[in-house]
Design goal:
Length: 111
Amino acid sequence: MPVSSVQESSSGVGRKGYIDQEGIAADCVLARLDWRGAQALRSAGSSGVLTEEQVSLLRSGKHPDLIDEKSRLTELGRLSYEQLTGKKLEREQDRKQLLTRNIDQQMEDKT
């Protein structure tokens, strides 16, 4: 869940900034995965059949488990997969675009 912080700009108008804790957690996982781990994460994310080696890579002690007992992605596994495949970036760009539209609408309403 993003954490918000209010920052005063030079114009005195408060702006909210968000810390993407989920994105940071996913980035930390991806930083620890080698290419075999990333390939295993892609297979798990696309509902592929995992080998025993891939299962052990995604459930090793180096990081929290990325898959459950049934080889389905955990929440952290899903976030990491989305980060790996760029889906999260796409959602973030959509969110920023909506935020910009809302700011533009607010500015028009004030004038």
